[in-house]
Amino acid sequence: LGPIAAVMIVDYWLIRKRQLRLLDLYLPEGVYKYRRGWNLRAVVATLIGCGLAWGGLIIPAMRPLFDYAWFVGFAASGLSYYLLMRR
Length: 87
Prior knowledge:
- 64% of the residues lie in helices and 0% in strands.
- The protein is built from four helices and no strands.
- The chain is elongated, with a radius of gyration of 15 Å.
- The protein starts with a helix and ends with a helix.
């Protein structure tokens, strides 16, 4: 859940600067329209965070990342999402 929380927090606090267009949340062509309904940058950032955090199950040398999976996933996804959305 860390990677998902990071994407939501970074989007609201850093990308959108705490400004939501309430009406656009319900409009199909509003400001929150993404390609086929998916924000692919958010999906990629979430997968990066999950992959890094879960890597400890597969690679023994990365076991500490899995032990702190929530925090590792949160940091990796948050940073990834911020960098992807700033482009």
